[in-house]
Amino acid sequence: MLMMDRPRGCRTLLLVLFLGNMATALEVPLDPKVLEGLPQPPTITHQSPKDYIVDPRENIVIHCEAKGKPHPSFSWTRNGIHFDIDLESKVTMKPHSGTLIIDISGGDKAEAYEGVYQCTARNEHGTAISNNIVIRQSRSPLWSKEKIKPIVVQEGVSLVLQCRPPAGLPPPIIFWMDNNFQRLPQSRRVSQGLNGDLYFSNVVTEDSRSDYICYARFPHTQTIQQKQPITVRVLNMDAINETMAAYLNDTDLFGDDPAEERRPSFLVPTGSTSSKMVLRGQVLELECIAEGLPTPEVTWSKVSGELPTKRAFFQNFQKTLQIMDVSEADAGEYRCTAKNRLGSVHHTISVTVKAAPYWISAPRNLVLAPLETGVLTCRARGNPKPTISWFMNGVPIENAPTDLTRKVEDDTIIFTEVQTGSSAVYQCNASNEYGYLLSNAFVNVLAEPPRVLTPLDKVYQVIMNKRALLDCASFGSPLPGIRWFKDSRSSVLDGDPFVFHENGTLEIPVAQAFNSGKYTCVATNSFGISENRVHLEVKEPTRILKQPEYKVVQRNRNVVFECKVKHDPSLIPTMTWLKDNGELPDDERFIVDSDSLTIMEVTENDKGTYTCIMNTTLDQDSASAQLTVVEATPTPAVIYEKPDAPTDLELTDPGARSVQLTWIPGDEHNSPIKKFLIQYEDALHDSGTWHNLTEVPGTKTTAHLKLSPYVHYSFRVIARNEIGYSLPSQPSHQYKTNPAAPDENPSEVKGMGTEPNNLVISWKPLTGLQSNGPGLQYKVMWKQMHVDEKWTSVTVANVSKFVVAGTPTFVPYEVKVQAVNNYGHGPNPAVIIGYSGEDLPVEAPEISRVLVQNSTLAEVNWRSVPAKSVRGKLQGYRVYYWKERSLHKHNGHGHPHHMEQQTLTFGENRSHGKLPGLHPYSLYKVNIRVFNGRGEGPASTSQQFETPEGVPGQPAFLRVTDNNLDSLTLEWGPPHEKNGRLTGYTLKYHSVNNSNELGHLEELTVPANETSITLHNLKYSTRYKFYFSAKTLKGPGPSITEEFATIMDTGIPASPYPLSPTSQFLRPPHHKGNEDWQKEMVNGSQSHVLKGLKEGLAYKVRLVAKGHTDQTVHRSEELLVTLPAMASRQVDIATQGWFIGLMCAIALLILVLLIVCFIKRNKGGKYPVKEKEDAHADPEIQPMKDDDITFGEYSDNEDHKPLKGSRTPSSGTVKRDESDDSLVDYGEGGDGQFNEDGSFIGQYSGKTERDTVQGHESSEAPSPVNAMNSFV
Question: Is 773's pLDDT higher than 60?
Answer without folding.
Answer: yes
